[in-house]
Design brief:
mainly alpha; 9 helices; about 0% strand; single chain
């Protein structure tokens, strides 16, 4: 990865993460931004028990999306400070301030612990269990592919993780190529 991620590329990735996938009709935002807003609906004080807009299914979906992108980003065994900073910037910006930096860093620390403890294959299985629909699975692939672009494109090992995610989510064999093609077209504009 270069010393600093290209700010134009980061801006394009963020913009594409905010938009609904091309297959989504009638949706006003991406699954990431919508689930991210619901994920943080109870963030005033986790100890409080007052009613909130917290949606546990949206929270699980948000975590699955972030974890899938994290698994792809760490697939090569290198998640240095520059790549981590770009990852955090992209996710935080795409969530339009609904997610705090502290919460994202805590989530990433948890994901790292889980990846080390369980291994990538088990984490891919767990991500797939949190996804209930094909459009969500396609969005997981799209987000992971977009974030992989931040670090000089999708490497062969990152593509293998995307393929394993697609297979575990019961998507057709063409799903990874479709996601990568959509990302390539979106970033070329």
């Amino acid at each position: 990865m270069p010393k600093a991620a290209d700010s134009r590329l980061l801006a394009k990735v963020v913009q594409n993460l905010r938009e609904p996938a091309s297959q989504s009709s009638g949706r006003t935002g991406s699954i990431l931004t919508i689930a991210g807003a619901r994920y943080t609906a109870s963030s005033v004080d986790d100890e409080e028990t007052r009613p909130t807009g917290f949606d546990p299914q949206a929270a699980a979906l948000f975590e699955a999306i972030v974890e899938s992108a994290y698994l792809v980003a760490t697939a090569d065994g290198n998640f240095d400070a520059t790549e981590r900073g770009a990852f955090e910037h992209v996710v935080l910006t795409a969530c339009d301030g609904a997610l705090s930096e502290r919460k994202l860093r805590a989530l990433l620390a948890d994901l790292e612990d889980l990846r080390v403890e369980d291994g990538v294959d088990k984490r891919i299985q767990m991500v797939a269990k949190m996804i209930s629909r094909a459009d969500q699975a396609r969005e997981v692939l799209r987000v992971a592919a977009l974030i992989a672009q931040v670090s000089e494109g999708v490497s062969e090992v990152e593509r293998l993780v995307l393929e394993r995610l697609a297979a575990e989510c019961k998507l057709p064999a063409t799903a990874v190529d479709d996601a990568l093609g959509e990302v390539e077209n979106a970033l070329a504009e």
